[in-house]
Amino acid sequence: MAVRTVRRYGDPILRQKARPVAEVTPEIKAAIADLVETMHDQIGIGLAAPQVGIPLRLVVMDDGKGDVRTLVNPVVTEREGSIRGEEGCLSIPGIFAEVERSSRVRVEALDADGQGVSFEARGLPARVIQHEIDHLDGVLFIDRLPPVQRDRIKRKIQKEGLREDSSRHAFAL
Ligand code: ZN
After folding, report:
1. What is the largest CA-CA distance in the chain?
2. What is the pLDDT of residues 93-132, one digit of tens each?
3. Which structural domain, as residue segments, surrounds residue 138?
4. In-domain check, residue 107
5. What is the CATH number of the domain that holds 28?
6. pTM of the predicted model, to two decimals?
7. Residues 37, 132, 160, 164: which is the catalytic one?
8. For ligand 1, a single-atom ion, which residues have Cβ within 5 Å?
9. How far apart are CA 52 and CA 58, in angstroms?
10. How many domains does the chain have?
11. Is residue 166 part of a domain?
């Protein structure tokens, strides 16, 4: 296992559509272990494989109590409601904004053993899942902001670069 470098805004891999995982092989399990280790090292609560340079549809999440969920090829099959909430991203450190997401989602995926899982999520876990699946499609949370706000953030990044905000780091995905 190894902590991998988190790719940052501007890295082209964050804009690529990730490929489905054909089978949960030992190599995939090793990649999952790296994702979990990197997420914990960065004190994140979710991480998608493209964020560490792996162009595959793999996501890990932490419920904040140390329970990790692995999602291989996750798909949202149902969504309901709409709710705004603050998000940050390990790939865009120091930037936080309110993003509108579905309030409830049903997700189908494979787990770390390649077994099919289907579950419902609400609240923060639902937000994390939607944020991470966006990463698999090359979408970043700032893309979901109103254009005026997004342009303001892009100008800020251009002018000041990306800076850590350690006091709020724990909420990054
Ligand atoms: Zn993110």
Report:
1. 46
2. 989 999 999 999 999 999 999 999 999 999 999 999 999 9
3. 12-160
4. yes
5. 3.90.45.10
6. 0.94
7. 132
8. 89, 173
9. 11
10. 1
11. no
